[in-house]
Structures are given as structure tokens and as C-alpha cells.
Amino acid sequence: MQSNSVNSQMLLRISTLFAINELSIVQELLESECGGNLPLIEKQGVEGIERIRCAVLRLSEGSMEKLHRAIEIAKFDWRDVLVASGFANDLTSHLVWLRNEQ
């Protein structure tokens, strides 16, 4: 699996959701708590990790508390955050959300 770092497009999306003083915290949380450490993630690859990270970001609605909760759910079973965020049935729907400014 490639780098566990958050890509620039995701960083841009994070900046639309969170306050400027929270950006580095959110990035660090995604990299350390919502990446290669997730259960049974190996087969999903980098694209799968990005999809799960988008799901937890969407569920966070810009709230650190909700972000922590979504990450904890993903650590237990990341499929739950995909379903809750609406990204479960389409492998590219998270990309549309990621690029959307709304």
C-alpha cells in the first residue's frame, strides 16, 4: 500500500469543513487513526482508504466531536461509515462529494 498521507484535494475539502486552527489536527487524525490501521483494509488499497476518509469527513459535518465518533465507528467496521455517508453503493460517489464545494 502506498503513502498513508492525506492528498491535496482532501486537504482542500477539510479546509471547507473545519476551522483553520483544526486543519492540522484533522489531517493528523485521518493519517494516524483512519488509514492502514483499519480492520481488513489491505484489499481496499489507497482508493479504499480515501473513500473511508471521505465518509468520516462527510459524517463529521465540520464537528471535531462527530469526526472522532465517525473514526471510532470506522475502526470497528468501516463499512458502517460508508453506508451512513451514502458512499456504500458507488465506488466513485465520494469523489463527487470531495470535489463539491457545498
Account of the 3D structure:
- The chain is an all-alpha fold.
- The protein has one domain.
- It has 5 helices and no strands.
- The protein is globular.
Helix content: 55-70%
Q: List the total number of helices.
A: 5
| Averaged pLDDT | 92
Share in β-strands:
under 5%
Please state the CA-atom Rg, rounded to the nearest Å: 12 Å
Low-confidence stretches: none
TL;DR of this structure?
This protein is 65% helix and 0% strand.
Structural descriptors:
102 residues, mainly alpha, 5 helices, globular
Topology:
Blueprint lengths: L7 H10 L5 H11 L11 H16 L3 H22 L7 H7 L3
